[in-house]
Structure formats: C-alpha cells, structure tokens
Amino acid sequence: MTAHIAGLGWVTPLGxxxxxxxxxxxxxxxxxxxxxxxxxxxxxxxxxxxPMKSVEALGRNPRLRRAxxxxxxxxxAGRAALADAGIVMTPELAARTAVVFAISNGGVIxxxxxxxxxxxxxxxxxSPALFPDTVYNAxxxxxxxxxxxxxxxxxxxxxxxxxLSALHFSAQLLATSDIEQVVxxxxxxxxxxxxxAYTDWRLARTPLAEGAAAVVLRRAGRWRVQTHxxxxxxxQREAGAALAGVLGDFAGAKVERVIASANGTFIDRAEAAxxxxxxxxxxxxxxxxxxxxxxxxxxxxxxxxxxxxxxxxLATVVGFNQQTGAALITPTR
Length: 333
Description:
single chain, Peroxisomal Thiolase, Chain A, domain 1, 23% strand, globular
C-alpha cells in the first residue's frame, strides 16, 4: 500500500523536538537511565522515562486530569504531528479524520494498580477511577475526543512491530474509504512490573523506554510511504528468513539508509541476515540504542527517523512475538 506522510511528531526520553532528537540519535547519545524498584522485593530495575515536563501542560485539560501516562504521550505526539503538518482541526475535517493507535502493553500503570487493589483488599476495593485507563483503546479514545473525532477510531495491539502494522492498516483505510487523513500514533509507558517482565523474559537488552510517535497520513504529503503487511515466523531462527521475504518486495528501491529495530536480542541477528540478502551495503541506524525499547511506539519512532534522514530510507522491524515488517519512506520534495 502507498500513502503520504504530511506531518511528524514524537515524545521521547531525549525530548520532543524533531530536529534536536534526530541529531542526538545520529551522535549516538543515550537518554538518561533511571532506576525503578519493585516495591514488593526492593529489586532495582532500569528504564528510560519521558521527562514529565514534556507533557505536563496536558494535565490542565479536564479529560486528561486522571489519565495514565501513555495517554499523555500519545495525545502530545498526535497533536505535534498535526502541528508539523500545519493542519488545524475543524468540525468538518474531524468528520473526515480517523485515529489509529498502535499499542503493545497499554496502560500498564493503572492496570497494575487496579488489580493490586483487588488482590490485596478484595474486589470491593477496586477503584472505578483507575479502570477506564486499563483498557487498550483508552489512549485512542482520549485523542479522538480532544480532536473532535466521533467516527473511525481503531487500536491495534501487538509486539514491537505493531507501529508498522498500524501504518499499513491506515494506508488501507485511506485507499478504501472517503476519509481525508489518519492520525497514526504509537505509545508506551513504563512501570516496574513491565521492566521486570522484559528483563526476566529477555525481550530486550536495551533499556525499556517510555514515549510516543505519530504521523499524519494523507493522499499527498512531504513523504511517500510504501507499507507492507509483514510476515510471521514460528521460531526465532526463522525470523531472518521471514524478514528477508518482506524485504524482497522492496528489492530495486534505491535505499540510502536502513532504520533498524535492533535491541540487543535475536532481533539484531535476524535483521542482519535479512538485510544481507537484499541491502548488504546500505548504512544502518538503530535508534533504540539511544531511545531504548519502547514496544508500542518503537516502529513509528523508526518511521519518524526514516523521514528525517532526508533521503530514501527503509524502516525494518522484527517483533518478539513472531512478526516482521518494513516500510519505505521517500521525500517528495
């Protein structure tokens, strides 16, 4: 599928400015690693937080006053992408706009707190104030409401590849409906229980990270994006072949830079194997080395980085849950 990106936005541990964060990634800077402890055992864990000053102004909005961090990040990134595109939302445009959210772990902070209350105090103690943000589609609901959208709103749940799945799904929406634009957002928040899980299950060697990224997808824009439905694999050793099959569909493209999803696990080897078959001499940039592993947001962060390279760039991703994908981003001017 083919569509166009009109605007970009992100909220990262390194900041929110597109040019500044891209430059820092290019220099190989690493966001500040913070410690977070398991309150039950005292076990120290590491993660890369988004400085709350980046989104604290949103707390003045009544709808977001009690929202979880993931909704703050997603709303901030979505609004930033619209601003970057120079788009002012009106009721008429809102009626022709869709929201598509990419989610991996969802509102894990409120979810953990909600069930912690149930386990320790009984079902009667469960807080109704926490429950709304435990559902996966809460961030999409918040963004859609704030933009005045009461129509198409979707949430896709998956592994670290879900951002590219959301991009492909959004391109399909543009091709098969009369909507004018899709605000595509991926977001992630961190809690100690999530950091413990990713550490124990060895899902990432780079620190787990918070953040969000967004693009505004239209039929015309500053970048042309060619999306792909991706391919699955059953065993980790098959991931490289699965990705190679996806990359084969981009063979012949004059790719100047690959934006990879390497995070220090089997994913690095799988990407290297797939790229060796089709793009063996193309320079590779792995932004997770600077931004950390942010599963729900990572693939769309790669997409933003690909657009900011200024040339023809290929974003590749291998997820830990048996999914691979890629997207080709080319400037139109």
